[in-house]
Amino acid sequence: MTLDPVHFEGIAQLAQRIRYDVGEDDHRDFARTVWDEFLDPLVDDGRTVLDPLGEQGRHVAPVEDVALAEVPYEEVHGLDSGTINPTTFTNGLVLDIAQAAMSATPSDLDLHRARTLVMTVHTNDATVDVDEGEWTVYDEGYIRSQIRHAPHVNRYEEGVVHALALYLAESEHALLQADLVDDLLVLDGPLYPKGLFKWADQHPELAALLEDEDQPQEVVQNYVELVETFVTRDVPLVGFVKNPATKVITRTVREKGGHAPWVDDSAFFTRILERGQFDHDAERWERDTHNLTCTNWFRSRGGADHPLSKDGDALGADRRLDPEQYEVTFCAVYDPRDDLVYRLEAPYAFTKDAETRENLRLFALQEIAAQGGPPLAVAKADELARISRDEKRALTETLEETFQARRTRDYDDTRWG
To answer: How much is the pTM?
Structure first.
């Protein structure tokens, strides 16, 4: 069935019954109040969860000018990991397969050829033997692969196999190729495995995995070692988050009694970074699309950033540096052309230096302006690591033959194909 004009009219009439007592300008005003009065520092229950590095401020960069700016990083590497998505089979196996790849700009074909593959398997059948073993190397040494038996859970099996495969492949590949990076490494996504850290808030069974099982702790230890490796080599390491979903500011403001109307912190940063004016004739906001805007750097110790803060436990990982050096710092960059906010993350070990902070932020601005989106190294890594729909289908069919079991299907498979 399709929506006829009368259906659209009915939906529009429903929408008209939703009344707003506060307008867009009021939302912007309150966002500015939060920016001016709450963040230096942001305190939650007596604990500082956010504080600016250096002077707090918002900055403007003309798109055309910053796109041509020179940055001090001649060779930039990117890293990403992609999966086939969690798959359940009729024999009870639940698995996901992740492949991690590193890109370089300028291109390095040998580096692009290298892959780290991890298959994570969950089963409730005690008779199933998962031969974890050592890493297997093939394709003339360019590919390493390993199979891992996921910890037993009674629910969230798909989420567990997905997160463990994704983060293990990414962290292992980054550690393996770290010595090839001389200027800058950009992870496609957060600096640390926040998907694991969020387990603590999702369900007691997942929280118990973080405390009791070795594999989540092994993953976190890998990321800790990655930071240590780059700090020792004095090569900056950052994470470029394309879809930030943190809520530390929003949640804390609400707990303090503030009426924060935003869904998450990205919406808040959009409010304070968007520039423009209200066109009274057209009765709409006209956004300035000629300038990128950004914030200063902040140090974050709340939400999923808490485990790697100076008073977090890092899931028991052994930290050789002062715990403060691992803390997550970030700046927000707003691209008005697409109305998108990006979050650039880096360990405090690098951003405690004002010049490094400025260089990293300029790098992000220059790449976003020139590429119209994420940095080129991130886009290339994403392309290398991505497993296409046809490849996923072919892999699933191969696994069905190997297991002599079908992928579990539901009605949506028939409905949508």
So the answer is: 0.94
